[in-house]
């Protein structure tokens, strides 16, 4: 009983600390501002802007509600902690509150300028041939399951199927508060070791896939990044992705090349060309942001002597399915033998450890 009482006291202390780090007062002020803007009929002249505003408003209200409900629960549990006839259900409620508080505490590590934004995730096959393309399919399933557990919406933007099996490359959008903040640590090379299902001799095979994660930007987010129409080379083609008749029979898919940098992006999953054009521009905007960020990092490295390897050299995690089972993060040392759970989207311990590592 004393142990449970102490745990409740600790929960109250952590909750008070969390309230300050999450800046709930500032977020309540932001809610009031957004509510005022949402009442302006002129807002709806730009449907995308209106949708983004209402989404931010809903996300902030949800976050405040989660905190207040948890605070009420912890206050109730602490008040009952001194009682003599505590039931097993009461202890389960304490465990549940500890878990919910831990999830909210993770958000205190997400203080980056763009952490609260939606994310654009790309997964690309590396060395390993058909095996690597199958590995991309496995990683896609893993991230989609993780997003589903978070309550985030996902939408495929572009995909290239493998010649024999799997996926050569895929880009998808994740819509949800802090999607970028949670997923940004997944950037890098993911290594799979297993018995090959594509080889009759069941030989041990090593495959690689590269994961990219970018924040989703609108034009107003990056006023210092100018995209000139003369610098753009547009190509339109028939989509190879699943969709309605319009997608398959009309050149609705868009491929965009930025001439000064050579960056190429594409979108082919929407039914109308104009929608795919907007998505391609947003993808380009995010790529140009990353390019600028990397240039700044390179300058800092040159000035301070820091070393940061290129993306393909940044192997962050190994997934071994044979001859033993183990998933190990090479940056934090976090590991587990429950490979099935990880590949089904159980990434919390890895993401939490990486967030703590980079913020310490």
Keywords:
360 residues, alpha+beta, Alpha-Beta Plaits, Double Stranded RNA Binding Domain, 3 domains, 10 helices, 47% helix, globular
Q: Which fold name fills CATH's third level, the topology of the largest domain? A: Alpha-Beta Plaits
User: What proportion strand?
Assistant: 15-25%
Q: Largest beta sheet: what is the strand line-up? A: 2-3-1-5-4-9-10-11
End-to-end C-alpha gap: 35 Å
Radius of gyration, CA atoms, in whole angstroms: 23 Å
Structure description:
The chain has 360 residues and is an alpha+beta fold. It has three domains: 108 residues, Methane Monooxygenase Hydroxylase, Chain G, domain 1, CATH 1.20.58; 148 residues, Alpha-Beta Plaits (2-Layer Sandwich); 84 residues, Double Stranded RNA Binding Domain (2-Layer Sandwich), CATH 3.30.160.20. It contains ten helices and eleven strands. The strands form two sheets. The protein has an eight-stranded mixed β-sheet, with helices on both faces. A hairpin with a 4-residue loop joins strand 7 and strand 8. About 4% of the residues have low confidence.
Describe the secondary structure blueprint for this structure.
Blueprint: H1 2-21, H2 24-38, H3 47-80, H4 88-106, E1 119-125, H5 130-150, E2 153-161, E3 167-175, H6 179-183, E4 188-195, E5 204-215, E6 232-237, H7 245-249, E7 253-258, E8 263-267, H8 273-304, E9 315-320, E10 326-329, E11 335-336, H9 339-343, H10 348-359
Parallel strand pairs: 4-9
Antiparallel strand pairs: 1-3, 1-5, 2-3, 4-5, 6-7, 7-8, 9-10, 10-11
Helix pairs in contact: 1-3, 1-4, 2-3, 3-4
